[in-house]
Each structure stands twice: as C-alpha cells, then as structure tokens.
Amino acid sequence: MARHDDFLPVDAGAEARSAGLPALAEHRSPFGPGFRLSPRTTGTDGFYIATLTRM
C-alpha cells in the first residue's frame, strides 16, 4: 500500500453487510480494513482478506 497510493482499502464490514453477509462482517480485522479468519474463531485455515479499489 505504501508503494501504490492509487489503491485505497474498502471497509470490509460495510461490503459484507451490503452483500447480505452480516455474519462475515463480524470478522472484520482489528488490525486493518479487511477480514481476519482463524481456526480459533471460524474453524477455517488462517486468512486475511482485503478489498482494494483503484482511484
């Protein structure tokens, strides 16, 4: 992100809610604009998912 200032993060919680996925919105990461999924919280492998938009 530091090298590509033409990209901006999209709010993950808002995107999940607008897509009709309110349960996914609960997994917004406290460390960034994406989702943080882990075996402990979701029973999945570990993932970080973010959506970016080009300005």
Taken together, the total number of domains comes to 1
User: Roughly what percent helix?
Assistant: 25-40%
Please identify the structural class as seen in this structure. Answer: alpha+beta
Number of discrete helical segments: 3
Question: Overview of this structure, please?
Answer:
It is a single chain. Helix content is 27%, strand content 22%. A two-stranded antiparallel ribbon has the order 1-4. It has a two-stranded antiparallel ribbon with strand order 2-3. It has one domain. The protein has three helices and four strands; from the N terminus they run βααβαββ. The chain has 55 residues and is an alpha+beta fold.
Provide a short characterization of the protein structure.
With 55 residues, this protein is of the alpha+beta class. The chain has helices at residues 12-18, 22-25, 39-42, and strands spanning 7-9, 35-37, 47-49, 52-54.
Blueprint (SSEs and pairs):
Elements: E1 7-9, H1 12-18, H2 22-25, E2 35-37, H3 39-42, E3 47-49, E4 52-54
From the structure above, extract its key features.
55 residues, alpha+beta, two-stranded antiparallel sheet, 3 helices, 27% helix
